[in-house]
Structure prediction request, 198 residues.
Amino acid sequence: MSVGPSAAAQNTPATVERVFVLGVDPGVSRCGYGLVERHARDGSLSARAAGVIETDPATPMAERLFIIQRELDALLVELSPQVVVVERVFFQVNVKTAVSVCQASGLALAAAAGHGCSVVEYTANEVKQALVGYGSATKEQVQRMVAEVLGLRQVPKPPDAADALALAVCHLSSHALRRAVELASSGALGAAARGAGA
Prediction:
């Protein structure tokens, strides 16, 4: 019994689009960002930009949020990502921290939508699962995997930028898997329908 490509695979050309995904690790004091490109040639990933937007804790909150909004807008204009991935706040012990992270997250979501980008959210556990294989992985393990996947000699710094890159890598990896599952499912459903009609 020989195993070859399925009918669905034969009828669907294997193409990989060039895609730019911007990850945002929200925070008011430090808001990390990281742009990852998926190359059309071979589907490999590479980091194109990474950094942190910082605000002074002594500055009034309204002004700090305005700084983040302005900087995010400038990044979206400069980097032109197709997709923006923001970390979803799932659980925080510190209520004050949770509120400020949610405020920064809201700014990132609104800015992305305002620039016509697709917007996706993942929890920290989902990122860990996608990159390391289990949701209880440490931040250091995730950051080492980010460096490996992106072909970097060192772990990206600061950590906020590394976390933002991890969000982008998570989406690109998860999106490819979801697309493959969708194609496989549609092929299986099509085959079942054809079999039922025979």
Helices lie at 7-11, 61-79, 95-114, 124-131, 139-149, 159-197. The first helix runs from residue 7 to 11.
